[in-house]
Amino acid sequence: MKSIILLSLLFFNFNLSATATKIIVRAKAKDAKFVGSSLGGAYIIIRNKTDNSILAKGKTNGSTGNTDLIMRTPRERGKLISDAQTAQFLATIDIEEPTFIRIEVISPYNHKQAQSIVSTELWLIPGKDILGDGIILEIPGFIIDILKPRTHQYIALKDVQNKVFELKANVVMMCGCTINSGGIWDSENMEVTAILKKDGKHLKNVEMSITETNLFEGSIKLTSAGQYEIIIYAYNAKSGNTGVDKVNYVIYE
Description:
- The protein is mainly beta.
- The protein has two domains: 2-139, Immunoglobulin-like; 142-252, Sandwich (Immunoglobulin-like).
- It has three helices and 16 strands.
- The chain has helices at 2-16, 67-72, 157-160, and strands at 19-29, 43-48, 54-59, 89-95, 99-107, 116-124, 130-139, 142-148, 154-156, 164-173, 190-198, 201-207, 209-212, 215-221, 226-236, 242-252.
- It has a five-stranded mixed beta sheet with strand order 9-16-15-11-12. A four-stranded antiparallel beta sheet has the order 3-2-5-6, with no helix packed on it.
- A hairpin with an 8-residue loop joins strand 5 (99-107) and strand 6.
- The N and C termini lie far apart (97 Å).
């Protein structure tokens, strides 16, 4: 009788023992490559959907991936688009039974004005690893950094009145991939425009053109003092990608 009880307890404990289960999560920019170390990574949070507890968290590490494999090779079912160097977050999670999880990706982690939170939910089964490409979450948009004028810059009217006032912005894909004229990410397919506002009212729109890799420029003429705001957006009609950055600056007499 004691032997039967002992065997029953061992069997019961065996069934309840946690099993280490691996899962790979990747963040991929829409119409581009993976978010890797060169951009500061994407931040991953894996939660137990039942109680919202965090099972794993960390950043993706590695390269943006193989350009030919991701962007030029026709996609076939079952064929990987990642390789050994491609950025990933690998989590090992101890679970006792099938667990419904929520995966959140915050990307790009180091560019708050362009940051998106993308999520998905799925069942994680004990001992049934999800490797290879893993779970890929798509990050839409562009990262835009206005370089000129600077945020809250004070500029004397006498220095700019009726002169060419330059606007500059750096625009990249959400993986950091470069934008060029005629390149894989072709600036000819992208509309980059500055919206100029003064004292809260719209003044004009200014089309911006690429002058070197990732750099878009335009110009305006300022005729009066006031509180100015520049909103620069990028838009690609083919991919649906959009991005925005804003700065405020002051022209004083």
